[in-house]
């Protein structure tokens, strides 16, 4: 790839909207090449970076969460800056952002959830896995301050209700004995595992104090996980599945009849090694004699919810048996029964939500694009790109975002090479615009102070770290040294 030489070529000024893995991997891909000088600002509406690595990976999975150390190194690079606590659609419009930089890469993820589409889904006690995960990870949206300002990104659930009004999760968890989790992916297993574990088994994690306190008061005895298809079609990994078998004082209950494979299931297991390994684990559990543990985790395959029962709050879930028709679609077989429950967590997928001023396809829940180039008004937008879940949908693992970001950045650099995207000497324009608005973004030095405050809080409680869950706590920690300097 050749480009015209210049004594001092102006850097390409790029804004990345979203400081999760996809956004930070995009910044990494931009800075790893040397042919086009770049100046990158990664923005996030939250005061802290790392997105789902901080707020989506279960706290009892520290090895996965540690990927943030790699992401942090990218944000520390020369030519990259982090601007937290800046909400596009509130502090700046998308058009204002575009006018202040040469190119924008949207990486704001998929913060909402897919619906089940059954009666009773809006009852008190029926919640999205996205909300429950955000709660136990200490996300400020689910642990709001009374003075929290509105945000435009991911501030509403799929039902249109404000996530800032959903603090009832704590109450639900502490008043539930029987829970139903709908879905058979890793997130569903995370939810089931957190519900099934004793609080002391989570005491060494970085969970927020208020979350641990709530889990210490929970009364859950039975967790039911529902899968519409058979065991060959699960989406979880074997490692995640085996973790359930390592939980103390927990009986794992699987109906051996659910594990019998039809022709389709045999074909899947024959070509999918993960499915085959999962089946081995499940059959081992099915053969175990029922123990006398204080809690039970029930895995139901070929079972789907028909409706959620209850008056003011969930009291149960009516389910039915399922099968595959000639076309491989799931159909109901009838044979209904009711599983008692006071909590239903739907874990059937995340879904993107629109950002004001940015093209969005309501049907797919994604920003329309081709190879990462945003499509606006029927054609390619000259300066807009997209990566991550809001580009491809909520699929893959954390590492998938890296190759996805590389594809998008490759498209962007090709556009520079072809002259479709031209550096315009806009260094500093975004910073100046924020200053004019009186907006003071939280930068990496602020994050380092938050990081230190969380580590210190954890140590004071005999833990490695304790998450600060409220926006006010995060901002106070970020400003702590500056305030102390003023006082001195």
Automatic annotation (TrEMBL):
Ranges where the record places region Disordered: 143-165
Cofactor requirement: FAD
Alphabetized Gene3D superfamilies for the sequence: FAD/NAD(P)-binding domain, NAD(P)-binding Rossmann-like Domain
Alphabetical UniProt keywords: FAD, Flavoprotein, NADP, Oxidoreductase
Record-linked SUPFAM superfamilies: Nucleotide-binding domain
Catalytic activity annotation: 2 reduced [2Fe-2S]-[ferredoxin] + NADP(+) + H(+) = 2 oxidized [2Fe-2S]-[ferredoxin] + NADPH
Its EC number(s): 1.18.1.2
Domain FAD/NAD(P)-binding: 14-217
Enzyme type, top EC level: oxidoreductase
Family classification: Belongs to the ferredoxin--NADP reductase type 1 family.
PANTHER family for this protein: GLUTAMATE SYNTHASE 1 [NADH], CHLOROPLASTIC-LIKE
Descriptive protein name: ferredoxin--NADP(+) reductase
Phylogenetic placement of the source organism: Bacteria, Bacillati, Actinomycetota, Actinomycetes, Propionibacteriales
